Amino acid sequence: MEKFGGGFYGAKLEGGIFVFNGFFMTMRSAFVAPGASIHYYVVEWDPKDLKWSEFRGDLLGPTDPAQASLFLFTYGKIG
Q1: Do 73 and 55 contact (CB within 8 A), yes or no?
Q2: Do 10 and 44 form a contact (C-beta atoms < 8 A)?
Q3: In the prediction, which pLDDT does 48 show?
Q4: Is beta strand 2-5 parallel, antiparallel or unpaired with respect to 8-13?
Q5: 13: nearest Cα among 22, 2, 24
Q6: Could you give the strand order of the β-sheet that contains 8-13, starting from the edge strand earlier in sequence?
Q7: Partners of 19 in the β-ladder
Q8: What single string gives the DSSP state of each residue in 2-65?
Q9: How far apart are CA 45 and CA 74, in angstroms?
Q10: Which of 11, 54, 76, 78 has the fewest CB atoms within 10 Å, i.e. the most exposed one?
Q11: Quick one: residue 55, left, alpha or beta (phi over 0 = left, psi -120 to 50 = alpha)?
Q12: CA nearest 38: which of 26, 27, 25?
């Protein structure tokens, strides 16, 4: 089970089956509309240096853009 944010949860079951919470279809429509796109990054770190909760809450910050602070990522600065 993974929490993707904003109340969006999903899990991968045996046989390659994915299960998402009931709000998924409403949320999905924003990402599959014509012209929409999804951008993602792959990051790795040693959990002894930074807990997931610190990465998610302190480094990335709020999921609501109105509450988020400006975060500028400089290559090599973190890690």
Answers
A1: no
A2: no
A3: 93
A4: antiparallel
A5: 2
A6: 2-5, 8-13, 17-20
A7: 11
A8: EEEETTEEEEEEGGGEEEE-TTHHHHHHHHHSTT-----------TTTS-HHHIIIIII--SST
A9: 16
A10: 76
A11: alpha
A12: 27
**Cβ(11)–Cβ(18) below 8 Å:** yes
Q: Which two tokens stand for residue 74?
A: 């400089």
pLDDT in tens, the chain (79 residues): 777 776 678 888 888 888 877 666 677 787 788 988 877 788 888 999 989 888 888 777 777 767 766 654 444 455 5
Distance CA 27, CA 60 (A): 20
DSSP state of 68: P
The answer to pTM > 0.70 is no
Residue linked to tokens 């012209």? 35
Phi, psi of 17 (to 5 degrees): -90, 130
